[in-house]
Amino acid sequence: MSAATVLETEGLVKAFGDRVVLDRLDLSVDRHEVVVLIGASGSGKSTLLRTINLLEPIDDGQILLGGEDISDPRVDADRVRARIGVVFQQFNLFPHLSVLDNVTIGARRVHRTPKAEAEATGRRLLERVGLADFAKAHPDRLSGGQQQRVAIVRAIATNPELLLLDEITSALDPQLVGEVLDLVAELKEQGSTILMTTHEMRFAEHAADRVVFLSGGRIAEQGPPAQVLRDPQHADTRAFLSRLTAR
Description:
single chain; alpha/beta; Rossmann fold; six-stranded mixed beta sheet; four-stranded antiparallel beta sheet; 9 helices; 10 strands; globular
């Protein structure tokens, strides 16, 4: 594992009963790199992210974060999760808390950041994404796209080593997708390290440093976006992309 590598999985295996979802999967993500996972439903994309965040135990292999074996069962899972920012398909905002409290709760409760400091950071980030006026509002006052932007701000408020984004636009109306993906593109420009899943191929082509195609729990193909998406070498990749364009 090089000094520039933030995340590495080695021989990762995860099964649900007799169904193997991750099959000896090896993957690395370097610092400041944006890696986009693509693949059909059931290919292992979301399960991979859940194992990295220690929400699913693995059956074999290793997960290294910053060189530390976080898959060791003796590891404090909460301490590891404090180093990772996660945004899932659903916004998972606390409905009884204000937008600002949603954004700062991780910094205050997990990282023990003083309230004034956490709120100053939260307000600055909300200003950056155009939501400063909603700081005291509750999530039900916001559109889906605004709620997802708040969820992303919450994930980056603690300056995580790694950001995991799992199909963050799938629950949004089409007209709201762009505003969320614009924020991810901005995070890329600012040097965030991101591993994400998406079905937005146009976004993957423009924002990713590397596209990884998963098939049957394995990496079938990976490389620069232009190569994987425009000139795929693997038959499974070609079939997957042709199905998308046929919709």
